[in-house]
Amino acid sequence: MPQLEDMQQWFNDYPIIWRVAKFLVLLIVIMLGIQILRNYFKRKISNTGIRYKAQKGIEVIGYVLLVIIAIGYFSGTIKDFTIIIGVFTAGLAFTLQELILSIAGSVYIFLVKVYAPGDRIQINGIKGDVIDVDSIYTTMMEIGEWVSSDNYSGRIVKLSNAFVFKGPIYNYSQDFPFIWDEINLPIRHGSDIDLAKSIVIKIATETLSEFTKNSKAQWKAIVNKYYIEDAEVEPTLAISLTDNWIEFNLRYIVDFKKRRYTKHLLNDKIRVEFENSNGKIILGSTTIELIKIPELEVNVSASK
Prior knowledge:
By secondary structure, this protein is of the alpha+beta class. Helices cover about 50% and strands about 20% of the residues. A hairpin with a 2-residue loop joins strand 1 and strand 2. Helix 1 (about 1-15) crosses helix 2 (about 15-45) and helix 2 (about 15-45) runs antiparallel to helix 3 (about 50-75).
């Protein structure tokens, strides 16, 4: 057939095009193989951690295999290959700049260990737990938004890895999986302040003892690793006077995943102890002092 002969002649005149076409077919076959193996592991492995590592291992092996095949495949015609790369590089760099930046971001995340699956981070204004990091996207289980405190919203967010180059990344768990939190307690003027102080410190020390103990060794490692001053990990209480009450500020350290429950526990225990103080300690509320009541003149006329 003339058309088939013309096509064969065209491929003979431009052998590099034929080689690239065959390589693309090979690339598709390998990518399909990776996806089939990922789905197989997903069905057969029940343990989440092992399944995730197995799937990622298959991806890495597949990409390494592609690089090796590409180098070997084009090594014989490297001159022609570099010509084609030069022709398309400018256009690809412009049209796929976000994709290229995302891939570079994934390499940066892996090498620098910016974050990893299991970390709680905030990036580009989105806070959540990292559940997957691939070559293009970081997948997060979102926290916050319309729900209070550190609860899951239920939305899964896919964020381009390019954002690691575009702004700050807040990591709640890397190196030091604890955060500082605070509780403010308004105590009415005239209450037994010394008794209130002893109750709050006692409850905080007992409730937070495990967090305090576990955080001390890890905080020392942080101080040795980074240029940072030492900090107090024991619960501390500061008092300030206001017009309406005496404000207690309790500052303490807590596991980043147990912040909400710990705050509830502290508040509830403190409330019970204050209520059992027989009126010696009363929580404050906003008060209004009337200096002078304005004089009112009322005229009452007799009705007919």
